[in-house]
Amino acid sequence: MNYFIAFFSLLFVGITNGQTLKSPDNQLELIFELNQLGKPTYQLKYKNKSVIQPSNLGLVLKNNDNLVDGFEVINAKATSFSDKWKPVLGEEKEILDQHNQLIVELLQKATGRKMNLVFRLFNEGLAFRYEIPTQEKLNYFVIADEETQFSLTGDHKAFWIPGDYDSQEYSYNETKLSQIDVDKLDMNNGIGMKGPMAKSRIQSPVMMKSADGLYLNIFEAAVVNYPIMHLDVYTKSFQMQSHLVPNAIGDKAYLQAPANTPWRTIMVSDDARIILASKMVLNLNEPSKIEDTSWIKPMKYVGIWWEMHVGKATWDYAGSQNAQMAQEAELKPTGKHGATTENTKKYIDFAAKHGFDGVLVEGWNVGWEDWFGNWKENVFDFVTSYPDFNVEEVQKYAASKGVKMIMHHETSGSVSNYERRLDRAFSFMKKHNYDAVKSGYVGKIIPRGEWHDGQTMVNHFNYAVERAADYKIMVNSHESSRPTGYHRTYPNYIAAEAARGNEFNAWSVGNPPAHETILPFTRFLGGPMDYTPGIFEIKMSHYDATKKEQVHTTLAKQLALYVTIYSPLQMAADLPENYERHLDAFQFIKDVEVDWDKTEILEAEPGDYVSIARKAKGKESWFLGAITDENPRNTEIALDFLTPGKKYKATIYQDGKDAHWEKNPKAYSIKTIEVTAKSKLKLNLAAGGGTAISFFPM
């Protein structure tokens, strides 16, 4: 580890009320000052151009107490840090953490209380947080607000979703900052449970682009024992201020010194690819707390899931029987239950035949007849299966085929019930050889009055991952708060949903073609997503002639998503019979890796297109994914990321000549050519389309 202290002459001479700090490449400059009221402020410059104008910092405590003004600087220290570390699973074999740090120690003269501001400048952005050291004048305290401001320099184009305390499952809006207005959005969007919202409150991360071509992103990292940060936007002044999600009685966070807030991050570059390649959020999280990580493995899986979304099967066993009937009488099967022993064996056979690691089964356990919308505490016990699902038989059959089973724990939002049963549920999993769980939090939270994004729930999501690690279980959370890099600290947090996934295309307005070109600049910055790509039967009218819903991509784009969406847990989400009709295209899903040694961001423009190439972990094979929005796109890709001097067989899965996400989504063609690092490929992407390419050394 290279960690050395360097007192830069450019920072300060003695202790003053103003300091500056530059990034390792000298392109970014932080300026910290105390104003005349002793209020801490900061500003940020990129290539000598203002990015964040002077903005206030501070913490408001409960009972009209504050840590926002009346400060003096009692010490300031600058250090440089450079080190490399290896993620357990990831987009890179090795990650460089290189930054310059400034710690400003503040004393509030009137109260004698101390607060530190810690700034870190990476080449791609700024991170800062508040630290409350151990002290006599401040021990237990309650955060009422956080006066963290981001004063932007203009009316930037922004990609944003509403600041809903309970859901991130919205399509992104692309507007100027001045045009942000939640009241104008169509809320008939398939989200079954919405939380409080405000006219100009949005969620972080928010991606922006200035009129002169500068890319900016405001987010956070390492959210631990603290609520999620949303952003209040002042649409006339182009200023944002942190908005912390409250608990049931309106408080934001309960802390005890020593304590720190999450990191607030501002990424900035004149090249959009730098934003996507950034590992700043990961670097701001603590190293792995799991000593033996040998049991944490990447997975490709299939499962009993999509057939419920398209109406072929149901999660419940007894259909419309009400709760009282379910409790007082023997359940009577409807014949549409998906999670049967027989059906599960079919998926296991399919997984074994095509080389998939696991099978997910949803709806295996009792309780689905009365699980949603009633704010009911005791819904699932996570150990009792329906009569037509034999846990032991399925376990033995999967083991005989070399396939792992993935457990499903839907909590229906009843977190108190889940925590009471968590150890029994994990013990049941290990007894039956389940090493991974998909957890779900659909519905209003119990304890009642809490929100998905509040401190209580952030602590629960983190605790569930930590407890799972004790059992050597990997976690894929759905309807959780969005990740902020915590999977570095607990790498068994293998994936999460926390955004609008592919499922919405089956039964709602669906995801616009631009959706997957925005997610890499927003949700994916915090961690891998279980997006569930790979839908081949695009139009839902295939299952019901009256349905008009469809996936808003071409089939070729569904393949490309396996590369442009990073996740060490990837699902082939469609039905086995749909893949069997297109085994030539299905070959790419079978071939594509999910853990990587190297990632190259080839092209990127938020809301328009993304092209990414990745090298498989420990292999010479590469995979490329290129996607576009609703507009067709022609581009040429240089293959200089390939190893020089080697020849590769490139199999290209591309849109057909007349392909179109709406009019002709299933038109595709496949060709194989020989290429080297000196080759260039012309790609023709249809509207809402994409191209997927595998490169195997010859």
TrEMBL record:
Its cofactor is Ca(2+). Pfam families: GH97_C, GH97_N, Glyco_hydro_97. InterPro entries: Aldolase_TIM (IPR013785), GH-type_carb-bd (IPR014718), GH97_C (IPR029483), GH97_catalytic (IPR019563), GH97_N (IPR029486), Glycosyl_hydrolase_97 (IPR052720), Xyl_isomerase-like_sf (IPR036237). Keywords: Calcium, Hydrolase. GO terms for molecular function: carbohydrate binding; hydrolase activity. Residues 21-287 form the Glycosyl-hydrolase 97 N-terminal domain. Residues 305-499 form the Glycosyl-hydrolase 97 catalytic domain. SUPFAM superfamilies: Xylose isomerase-like (SSF51658). Residues 595-695 form the Glycosyl-hydrolase 97 C-terminal oligomerisation domain. Monomer. This is Glycoside hydrolase family 97 protein.
